[in-house]
Amino acid sequence: MENISQYQSSRLSVAPMMDWTDRHCRMLHRSLTARAMLYTEMLTTGAILHGDRARLLAFDPAEQPVALQLGGSDPADLAAAARIGEAEGYGEINLNVGCPSDRVQSGRFGACLMREPALVAECMAAIAAAVKVPATVKCRIGVDEQDPEASLFSLVDLCAQAGVRHFVVHARKAWLQGLSPKENRDVPPLDYPLVYRLKRERPELTIVINGGIASLEAAQAHLQHVDGVMLGRAAYHTPEILGEVDARLFGAGEAVHVLEAVRRYRPYVARELSRGVRLAAMTRHMLGLFQGRPGARTWRRILTVEGVKPGAGLEVIDAALAAVSRSASRDSGLQEERLTRGLEAGQAA
Fold it and tell me: Name one GO molecular function term (predicted).
């Protein structure tokens, strides 16, 4: 794969999302875009240092550029986990300072670290000293009753003093009490202008904006103010938009149609099936591929119903594709029929 710098790839990235952006999901996304930066799910330092490292950190070289996101607050543990991540081949080490879940808070990492910017800077200094790849931060603009302007700028400035040059900012506060993690993705209001201001006043830093961005049109508008855009749920639920990323945001190549993405993903699925991976572990990430197109519901039904059966294989994907093709043909035929009737009616008039 062409070598793409971290700065270039940060122009558009796909957010680290728990239980979603596993290695199968990342390979699907890579079949749609060669240039967007991809991230792992957040992995805790404890899991990496004491867990099944081979399973947790496994990724295909074709996923590059891909970053490892860490969760933790002990500088020594973060440095050790970062070294392991770099040795495994990850091209960036990112610290999560934005996740608001109760489990994360109880471990003293994630969004609650917005209250301890000096500790975050110490953690980032330890990571940066441990690895040669970029050490980056993903944060919120604040938590609870914090003044977002003060909390965001304080965190960024202290981390910048520690050598960090790349920040991904989710442009919402996180409410650590009273809102669920799901509500924290929607309820706190977005403050895009504050992130724009951060870039204006810290022009030497790479600032990537995240939160509530649902389309490439919106991404292009944000890119007038910041260096990069991170898509989350939009990229996952409607992955087709990633097929336009390289052409529209990087000026490279042509858009990738979802059918072409399935063709590219298919050999990976076959290889993983041969290794004993269940089909459903991979097809669950494909459910949104035909969102808004004829046959989308049938596509989802076949993958979800047939894909979970014992021994399910590539024939399930092929059957779902055939059903989509039939729906598209019927839809095309109906449109042609309506057009013909409209022309005939116009001629009669």
Answer: tRNA-dihydrouridine20a synthase activity
